[in-house]
Amino acid sequence: MERVGIVDLGSGTARLVVYAYEPGHHYRLVDELREPVRLGQGLATTGRIAPEAAWRALGFLAAVQDYARATGLERIDAFATSAVRSAANAQELLEPARRMGIGLRVLSGTEEARYGVLAVAAGFDFEDAWVVDLGGGSAQLSRMRGRGFAGGAAYPLGAVRLSERFLAHDPPKPREVEALAAEVRGWLQDVVGELRARPLPLVAMGGTVRNLARAVQRARRYPLERLHGYFLSAADLDELSERLLGLRAAQRRRVPGLSPDRADVIVAGALVYRTLLQEAALPGLWISGLGVREGAFFRHFLPPPHRPACVRELHLASLEARFPQPAAHTQSVRDLAARLFAALAPRFRLGEGDARLLDAAARLHDVGLAIDFYDHHKHGAYLVLQHTLAGWSHREQALLALLVRYHRKGRPRPGALAAVLEPGDAERLVRLAAILRLAEHLERGRSGRVRRLEVEVGADTVTLRVGGPENPWVEVWEAQKDGALFERAFGLRLAVQSL
To answer: What is the distance between the alpha carbons of residues 117 and 278, in angstroms, rounded to a whole number?
Structure first.
């Protein structure tokens, strides 16, 4: 596999992320370095990067260089964003970095916005959307059309910049809050009309909005750890903003879900997003766990136009590649599950979404074997829940994890994950789990012995007739034992016979 390191020298935080990948097929994040460099500190008033901030950034770049030597990382794509872009003394940082052997590209506002759109195109199924990326020094608002960049602009509305300019007291005074909101309204007044006229999904990225979403999830005891694809409602954001406005920075550091090093600037970020949603009359925004760094990575990973043909497939394949399973067995289970589904779907009104979930669960059902055979169904469910399956909703990911969890044994039930499911999903879980488990039993010998499968759906019985080059005795024996789950799922008796 190839490796590349992406260095993002942001206005608030600097990061190195390292990816391993097979070009165009699958990838995974393998390491990360992070440092709150605060390059934007004081920039709004002086127009210059402060010496102490420059030293923090150069110290981080020295750490990156040493890390690369220690790990053999040969390719590094390094760039800087808003703070360096707007600082009068940017060369005082860029030149020492160059002497260290790290050539920092200074992204224009348009380039930064374009990278953000690339990340959204690779992380969501949306064809068209608005994309907002709020950093320490600026905010980029972009339009994605046909999964491509269709223009955007940068605004001086970064969390560090606005905190320094407007929020002098701790906690902020009401007049300071209103002045900051007025500043946001002033900058966005030209684009708000278009946002209202085209009420497309609004996708937000960056550490500020991820922290806000995480705080809401913790307060609501949300059962998933995943942030990507979470819908942060305007009501939840407003409630959290009011809570943060009443706390001092020292108290905000202790709010579950918030990074302590963002405690002094998180209020400004919350107010920018709250004002944007209010002015645009939007119900909320979608959280992207992928951002500018990932957009830069996809330029290495995918050929032009640097976006996947199918978002769901890319991230499902990446999980499969991370935890390899026996390919022939997995394909046999997929084929058997598909044939069982096709026979049962008309009678029980199972749709395309159900077929997609079942096939994905069949592909992932044995990922837990990477940990251990014993309880591998439980290990697999954990792995599915921990992976960012971009393009799949939180509900779909929960159902996939549950199907993996119950593909061997147990009474399928949502448990704590019921909070992210929809009405009817408990029944859907039982039916799809019954099909997947039956397919697994019919491939019990892991040898593809069941070559023929006839399914007859009668008035009160579903009869399976199975056969192959040799008698699949153990497969029939295993399948017959799970009639209770099948009957519970479909209200029909299960009969399994050899051809």
So the answer is: 23
User: What's the pLDDT tens digit per position in 153-207?
Assistant: 889 999 999 999 999 999 999 999 999 999 999 999 989 999 998 889 999 999 9
The DSSP line for 229-283 is T-EEEHHHHHHHHHHHHTS-HHHHTTSTTS-GGGTTTHHHHHHHHHHHHHHHT-S
CATH 3.40.50.1010 holds for 313-446: no
Homologous superfamily of domain range 2-106: ATPase, nucleotide binding domain (3.30.420.40)
3-class DSSP assignment, residue 106: strand
Largest distance between two CA atoms of the chain: 83
The answer to whether 63 touches 35, Cβ cutoff 8 Å, is yes
Reduced to 3 states (helix: H, G, I; strand: E, B; else coil), residue 26 is strand
The CATH code of the domain at 110-292 is 3.30.420.150
DSSP helix/strand/coil, 450: coil
In whole numbers, what is the pLDDT of the chain averaged over residues? 96
- Please list the residue range(s) of the chain that carry CATH number 3.30.420.150: 110-292
Say what the pTM is. 0.93
